[in-house]
Automatic annotation (TrEMBL):
<comment type="similarity">
    <text>Belongs to the ERD2 family.</text>
</comment>
<dbReference type="GO" id="GO:0016192">
    <property type="term" value="P:vesicle-mediated transport"/>
</dbReference>
<protein>
    <recommendedName>
        <fullName>ER lumen protein-retaining receptor</fullName>
    </recommendedName>
</protein>
<dbReference type="GO" id="GO:0015031">
    <property type="term" value="P:protein transport"/>
</dbReference>
<dbReference type="GO" id="GO:0005789">
    <property type="term" value="C:endoplasmic reticulum membrane"/>
</dbReference>
<feature type="transmembrane region" description="Helical">
    <location>
        <begin position="59"/>
        <end position="78"/>
    </location>
</feature>
<keyword id="KW-0812">Transmembrane</keyword>
<feature type="transmembrane region" description="Helical">
    <location>
        <begin position="90"/>
        <end position="108"/>
    </location>
</feature>
<keyword id="KW-0653">Protein transport</keyword>
<keyword id="KW-0472">Membrane</keyword>
<feature type="transmembrane region" description="Helical">
    <location>
        <begin position="33"/>
        <end position="53"/>
    </location>
</feature>
<keyword id="KW-0813">Transport</keyword>
<dbReference type="GO" id="GO:0006621">
    <property type="term" value="P:protein retention in ER lumen"/>
</dbReference>
<keyword id="KW-0256">Endoplasmic reticulum</keyword>
<dbReference type="Pfam" id="PF00810">
    <property type="entry name" value="ER_lumen_recept"/>
</dbReference>
<keyword id="KW-1133">Transmembrane helix</keyword>
<dbReference type="InterPro" id="IPR000133">
    <property type="entry name" value="ER_ret_rcpt"/>
</dbReference>
Length: 153
């Protein structure tokens, strides 16, 4: 399954970068977030804070830290464009809700699996869910008022 996940992820990125229909919707002027400023700090943090110092554990921790901030370029782009179409708004909301449901899963597993504490994934998941909080607020507010989703400047 991991090979299928990695393969489909690579295919999606390739499609977004090279398919002309998708490339026509990309606006380079609004995409000002420099994602490489996220990768290096996440890697350094993985080298410093990890469960066990070996290659696989450091890479696993790095992937967790990078997953936390992976949504930031999209959120910043949405903040710049302000007007968000329904498909994108629903996608971001459901992505954040998916992460928030992980918290419920962790609470359940804590009480059913010998009270194991997993600090790195828990803190990472809480931080990631907190990053969505502002978007959740405006998404629910626009849904409640039956308006088009708009983010403030």
């Amino acid at each position: 399954m991991k090979l299928v996940f990695i393969g489909t992820s690579i295919a999606i990125v390739w499609y977004m970068r090279h398919h002309k229909v998708v490339k026509q919707t990309y606006n380079n002027d609004q995409d000002t977030f420099r994602h490489y400023f996220l990768v290096l700090p996440c890697f350094v943090l993985a080298l410093l804070i990890h469960p066990v110092f070996n290659v696989m554990e450091v890479l696993w921790t790095f992937s967790l830290y990078l997953e936390v901030v992976a949504i930031l370029p999209q959120l910043v782009l949405l903040q710049h464009s302000r007007n968000i179409d329904n498909l994108t708004g629903n996608y971001i909301f459901l992505l954040g809700a998916y992460r928030a449901l992980y918290i419920i899963n962790w609470i359940y597993r804590f009480f059913t699996e010998n009270h194991q504490v997993r600090w790195i994934p828990w803190v990472s998941g809480l931080v990631q869910t907190a990053l969505y909080a502002d978007f959740f607020y405006y998404y629910i507010k626009s849904w409640k008022n039956n308006e088009k989703l708009k983010l403030p400047e």
